[in-house]
UniProtKB/TrEMBL annotation:
Keywords: DNA-binding, Transcription, Transcription regulation. Residues 13-143 form the HTH marR-type domain. The lineage of its organism: Bacteria, Bacillati, Actinomycetota, Actinomycetes, Kitasatosporales. The keyword DNA-binding applies. GO terms for molecular function: DNA binding; DNA-binding transcription factor activity. This is MarR family transcriptional regulator. It comes from Streptomyces coryli.
Length: 155
């Protein structure tokens, strides 16, 4: 069976893809700078932001951050040494260890989020309905329903 060649993207699709790439690059740079200002790597800041929502087992963290579990172990170890994260048994299965932010870790995650400059003012300048539309379109693009509480993105 011969594979068919997908149709070439239209002009608007190409422009949207380029714009998304630009947004991602700018956000990544701003996120790395915000993390560094708090003596964190970008990976550490993303992990803190993720755990600020809920404690998670290491394997789930690795899935959400799209990295190897061994990398997550090292990041959690370094954050634990700084008192930002702790390991605790899962309530449903005490053999499973969850990584969870400490009170200081939650405060640090919030300070990193608050120091992100990129897009804050441009987004705030948009009417509320436009921000909601953008949010809903991004959720749709990510395959999420509009009723979810958010994505695994760090900011």
């Amino acid at each position: 069976m011969a594979r068919s060649t997908p149709p070439a993207p239209d002009t608007v699709t190409r422009e949207v893809v380029d714009l998304i790439g630009t947004v991602v690059a700018r956000f990544h740079g701003d996120y790395e700078a915000a993390a560094a200002a708090h003596s964190l790597t970008g990976a550490q800041a993303r992990l803190l932001a993720l755990l600020a929502r809920e404690p998670l087992p290491m394997r789930r963290i690795a899935q959400r951050l799209k990295c190897e579990p061994s990398n997550v172990t090292g990041i959690v170890d370094r954050l634990e040494e700084r008192g930002l994260v702790e390991r605790r048994p899962a309530p449903a299965d005490r053999r499973v260890k969850l990584a969870a932010v400490t009170a200081e870790g939650a405060r640090t995650a919030e300070r990193v989020r608050a120091s992100l400059d990129f897009a804050r003012e441009p987004l705030a300048a948009l009417p509320s309905a436009d921000r909601e539309t953008l949010r809903d379109l991004l959720r749709q693009l990510l395959g999420e329903s509009s009723g979810t509480g958010g994505t695994d993105a760090a900011a």
